[in-house]
């Protein structure tokens, strides 16, 4: 079965996470993605854990992409890059502004040769403006975009210190927004025949996913009332079988407090002087939490409790290690986890595709492999029209970085 983007060619000049995740999303949708890797390699190959020449981090973002490794400091290599761009439907890069232009690979130069190309650049703060030249990684963008401060304001500072997140949201969300914009640009090209340039700023992405930004930018003072429906004030409980789980609804919020009373059949607590206002509920939160916890322990099992909470529109989620959900019946049914070779006899377990299409799920019979650096040099260059003799000369000139032959 053909993938949704079957026939779309992507030249992926990006490295580490934001750009590679963008191109990976297009790959998972069926595109043919060629990763162009510099001699020093994509830094993510060095991450831990690492088996042979491939890290799990690199495999997660790049398995299934073909790999061409060229040294753009060798003039002959630039012709390879230009031909790749000539044949590409999409180009993805996430270098600092000006880097691609230094090699003649910027959008203005490429579109003269390939006016139908969709060219996406992902940076911390965009291509223009006072912050455009700044280096950017997810933790620094989280800090600049207010995410770190919001977390500290809501949950406090452990040991008096600020902390960032354990996951690189700014990179991943920017990659996804890049893929969304590329799909829109491809649709525009289908209608008009013209390509276009897409400028994605990680900081703007993080502002766009802040569901409470309207409140953060207002002058409204809510006191102890919570400004949004979830995520910021979710209580944890222990289930009938000893499971730790989180509820989606705040005990303090005036919107969600009544839902607990409905589930518990305790509407009398609505007028209890300890819980009559958000300020009082927060002040007496330990007592309120204990009342709900004791009610939870009257149930025989989590399934029965879930059914009761579901009637009141309160969702629950058990606190699980990733290994637990990966081994669950749901994960098997969804194909949420896939295994790929690490190229030295072992395997990496990676996320599966997050969507299922009824008509265009693509061919899953051939396992994706994390390519070695330069593994597809000859294959791709032949497709680009280089002769065997020309490829040999490029190899001799060090324009091509040759792959290792020690992997499976």
TrEMBL record:
Q: Which UniProt keywords apply?
A: Transferase
Question: Has UniProt tagged this entry with the keyword Transferase?
Answer: yes
Q: Provide a Gene Ontology MF annotation, just one.
A: transferase activity
Q: Does the keyword Transmembrane helix apply?
A: no
Xref: InterPro entries: CoA-transferase_III_domain, CoA-Trfase_fam_III, CoA-Trfase_III_dom3_sf, CoA-Trfase_III_dom_1_sf
Specify the superkingdom: Bacteria
Q: Known PANTHER family for this protein? A: SUCCINATE--HYDROXYMETHYLGLUTARATE COA-TRANSFERASE
**Protein name as annotated:** CoA transferase
Give the species: Bradyrhizobium denitrificans
């Amino acid at each position: 079965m053909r993938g949704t983007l079957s026939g779309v060619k992507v030249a992926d000049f990006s490295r580490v996470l934001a750009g590679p995740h963008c191109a990976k999303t297009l790959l998972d949708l069926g595109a043919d993605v060629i990763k162009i890797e510099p001699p020093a390699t994509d830094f993510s190959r060095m991450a831990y854990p690492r088996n042979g020449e491939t890290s799990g981090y690199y495999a997660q973002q790049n398995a299934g992409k073909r790999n061409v490794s060229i040294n753009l400091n060798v003039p002959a290599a630039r012709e390879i890059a230009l031909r790749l761009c000539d044949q590409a439907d999409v180009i993805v890069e996430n270098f600092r502004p000006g880097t691609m232009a230094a090699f003649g690979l910027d959008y203005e130069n490429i579109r003269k040769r390939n006016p139908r190309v969709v060219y996406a650049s992902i940076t911390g703060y965009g291509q223009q403006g006072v912050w455009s030249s700044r280096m950017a990684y997810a933790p620094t963008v989280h800090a600049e975009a207010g995410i770190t401060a919001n977390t500290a304001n809501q949950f406090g500072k452990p040991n008096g210190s600020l902390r960032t997140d354990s996951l690189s949201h700014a990179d991943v969300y920017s990659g996804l927004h890049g893929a969304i914009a590329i799909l829109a640009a491809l649709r525009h090209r289908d209608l008009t025949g013209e390509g276009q340039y897409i400028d994605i700023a990680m900081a703007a992405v993080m502002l766009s996913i802040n569901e409470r930004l309207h409140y953060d930018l207002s002058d409204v003072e809510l006191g102890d009332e919570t400004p949004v429906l979830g995520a910021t004030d979710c209580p944890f409980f222990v289930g009938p079988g000893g499971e730790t789980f989180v509820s989606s609804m705040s005990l303090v919020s005036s919107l969600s407090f009544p839902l607990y009373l409905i589930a518990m059949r305790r509407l009398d607590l609505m007028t209890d002087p300890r819980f009559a206002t958000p300020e009082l509920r927060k002040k007496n939160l330990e007592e309120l939490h204990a009342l709900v916890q004791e009610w939870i322990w009257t149930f025989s099992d989590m399934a029965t409790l879930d059914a009761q909470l579901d009637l009141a529109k309160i969702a629950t989620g058990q606190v699980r290690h990733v290994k637990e959900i990966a081994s669950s019946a749901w994960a098997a049914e969804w194909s949420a986890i896939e295994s790929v070779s690490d190229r030295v006899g072992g395997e990496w377990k990676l996320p599966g595709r997050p969507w299922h299409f009824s008509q265009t799920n693509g061919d899953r019979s051939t396992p994706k492999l994390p390519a070695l650096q330069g593994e597809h040099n000859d294959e791709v260059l032949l497709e680009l029209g280089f002769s065997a003799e020309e490829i040999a000369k490029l190899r001799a000139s060090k324009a091509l970085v040759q792959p290792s032959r020690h992997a499976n």
